[in-house]
Structure formats: structure tokens, C-alpha cells
């Protein structure tokens, strides 16, 4: 089931709270999480259109993305790939 309103809330309100993430809009395409290695090579591509806002956040944390602290320090799990 397509959850685009949920994904839009995730992109607009939550994504910027994570370290090493960048949002790039591609008109006409369904939302995808693209994981890159340190050399910007694509290592995975995950369709987000069927995910809830909570599932999108859980996906990032399960992949090792850390939340930014208000001072710019990293708050949770070590490691992570760029979006």
C-alpha cells in the first residue's frame, strides 16, 4: 500500500535530523532511499512508497544512521551510509 503522505512527512520533517543524509527530489519518481559508500557508489536502493513514517525512521537507524544533536554532535548508533 502506498504511504506517500507518511513518506512526505518523513522527508520534510525527519530526514534532516540524521547525519550524512541528502534529499534530492526527482519529479515523477516514487521516493527511494539510495545508499552510497564513501566513494559515492550505489550499494542499495530501497522503495519507500509503501513505508510509514515510523518505518522510514526505523530503516535509517537499522542501517546505522545517527541522529544529529542540537549542537551537531551525533546521538545514536555508530556507522552509517550516505543517502
From TrEMBL:
Family: Belongs to the selenoprotein M/F family.
Keyword field: Selenocysteine, Signal
Name of the protein described by the UniProt record: Selenoprotein M
The UniProt record lists the keyword Phosphoprotein: no
GO cellular component entries: endoplasmic reticulum lumen
Every Selenoprotein F/M domain range: 3-65
Pfam families: Sep15_SelM (PF08806)
GO molecular function: oxidoreductase activity
Keyword Signal: yes
Amino acid at each position: 500500500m502506498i504511504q506517500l503522505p507518511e513518506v512526505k512527512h518523513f522527508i520534510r520533517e525527519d530526514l534532516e535530523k540524521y547525519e550524512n543524509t541528502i534529499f534530492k527530489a526527482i519529479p515523477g519518481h516514487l521516493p527511494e532511499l539510495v545508499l552510497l559508500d564513501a566513494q559515492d557508489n550505489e550499494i542499495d536502493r530501497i522503495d519507500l512508497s509503501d513505508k510509514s513514517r515510523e518505518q522510514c525512521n526505523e530503516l535509517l537507524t537499522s542501517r546505522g544512521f545517527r541522529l544529529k544533536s542540537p549542537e551537531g554532535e551525533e546521538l545514536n548508533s555508530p556507522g552509517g551510509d550516505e543517502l
